[in-house]
Automatic annotation (TrEMBL):
This is Acyl carrier protein. The gene is acpP_1. It comes from the Bacteria. Residues 4-79 form the Carrier domain. It holds the Pfam family PP-binding. InterPro entries: ACP-like_sf, PP-bd_ACP.
Length: 98
């Protein structure tokens, strides 16, 4: 997925999940100030993002995000990682050891 696709997904998801106008949800929108989300909303969003990525999102990672764009960067990293939602690493590629 490209950064733009991830950002578009986030914009749609955040707008739908929290009943916001899609135009309000921009990369530079601050999550807790401009979008007025609270910690419970953040937990709901994390659950949705974990479902989307199939990977566990660390609580500390979400605490560091300020904007929707920051979440897009976090999601891109999650999609690129090899740690599934269950928390166990994916088995190494057998061809990499040959």
């Amino acid at each position: 997925m490209t950064h733009e696709e991830i950002l578009a997904y986030l914009q749609r998801t955040i707008a739908e999940l929290f009943e916001l106008d899609a135009e309000q949800v921009r990369a530079e929108s601050t999550v807790f100030d401009e979008l007025d989300l609270d910690s419970i909303d953040a937990m709901d969003l994390v659950a949705k993002l974990q479902q989307f990525t199939g990977r566990r999102i660390e609580e500390d990672s979400m605490r560091r995000v300020k904007t929707v764009g920051d979440i897009a960067v976090l999601l891109a990293a999650q999609l690129a990682s090899s740690v599934p939602a269950g928390g166990e690493s994916a088995p190494p590629d057998a061809s990499a050891t040959s």
